[in-house]
Each structure stands twice: as structure tokens, then as C-alpha cells.
Amino acid sequence: MRSKTLALLLVAVIASGIVFAVSAQSQITAADIAKAILPGGFINPKAILPGAITSSHIANGEVKTPDIDDNAVTTYKILNETIRGEDIGEGQVNTTDILNETILGADIRNGEVNASDLSANAIPSVINNTAADDITIDTTPKEIVNDSISLPRDAKLIITYTGNVTGQTTTTTFVKINCSISNTTEAVREWYECKPGIITFADNAVNNVTVSVQFLNQTATTPAGDHYIRVMAWTTDGSAKINDNMLTVIALPA
Hints:
It is built from one helix and 14 strands; from the N terminus they run ββαββββββββββββ. Helix content is 3%, strand content 37%. By secondary structure, it is mainly β. Strands 5, 6, 8, 12 and 14 form a five-stranded antiparallel β-sheet that branches. Strands 7, 9, 10, 11 and 13 form a five-stranded antiparallel β-sheet that branches. The protein is rod-shaped and about 110 Å long. The chain folds into two domains: 86 residues, no CATH class; 129 residues, GOLD domain (Jelly Rolls).
């Protein structure tokens, strides 16, 4: 070993099942080994050549989540296609595990996410079509259609109301409507008017015509929980009838 007649000396140091190839032009001393193996038998990370340890050296189940420091693994450390859908157990990733704007449209290749990849009610929605026609309204606001939705997380609501006004009793009868929402879990029920607020839905120039109006929750984001949505209608004078009532509520994760 002390002879320097060898042009290249390869010494295999085996520690904890990991093989290190050590190249030397001169003799290896105890100090060299001490640099590679720290007191207590621990391996000095600096003594491991890049690429010396691969996934094949690590037994299944040896590395667990508690073994990885927070933020130790970042996206730029993961090679493309290293993690595939089949590598993730069912139910392992929930919406609460994904930070806002973590997944952008540009991150998803065409055809990567299909309708079959989304669980039922992945985007919660409720559609309610009233069976009652010829709802008579007058100058007292009356609930003509309602709906409820249970949100597992904060959401943005898109609300569409459709109706058909007929039978105005006077030539000056205008029909007004508005949409409001309340959180049914609140101890004291409070109603919040949706945008655009009170609107003129019909007059005598618009008679027996089906019209749709969109509303948005005034607070922009509707908090998680159970909510009740209602559409109120009334006349400026006289009375009228409303048919073909339909209320559609779509919740998009905020």
C-alpha cells in the first residue's frame, strides 16, 4: 500500500451499505478516512460524490415524511416526470394541501386532466328548478325561488336566475327583483344582497319573455359553510305573475 508504483489506486470503502469509489494518486492515510467517516460511525456528506447514492440504494419505506425537513424538497429538485399520478395514493392530496396558485393552467399539458379524473362534486354546484308556475306577486317583496349550497371551502358563487313575467295588471306595473344570500350556520341570520342589487326585471314592454339575470355575491368570496340563496320579486304597483322560475348556483373554489 505504501508503494507509489500504481498509477491509480481505487479503494472501496463500504459504510452502511453505500459504496464510495475513492480515487487516489498517493497513499491513503487514517486522516483521509477520518474525513469520510465522522465520530460515531456517521458518514460525512461531503465525502459522497454526486450521483453516488441513487434511489436503488434506498429500501422501500426507509425514508418517511418525518425524515424530511420542511421545505427541504422544492419543485426544482424534482426531475420532470419523477412523480406520476400512480405514485400518489388515493386521497393523499387534498385541496387543503395545495397552496393557492400552486397549479396553474400552464402547468397542465393538454389531455393531462380529463373529466374522468375529477370526482363527483369536485366543483360543488346546485341547480334548482321550481315546479310552481303562475306565482302571483304584488308590491310586497315575495320569495319566488330559493336554493341552498354546502361549501367545503371558500368559493366564488355564480348565480343565475331565469323567469318569465306575464299578467301585469296596469300599464305602469314594473317587476323588481333582487338576490341575497345568508350563512345558515350563523347564530343571527344576516342577509347579504348580491350584485347588481335591485334591478328592473320586466315591464309592459317586456311581457311573456323569458329573461335571465346573473348575480354575484357582494363579498366576492363566500366562506365555507352552508348557505341559503333566495330571489325576491315585487311590483311597483298592481300585480303580475312569474313563470318558468329557475335558479342556478355554481361554486368555484376561491
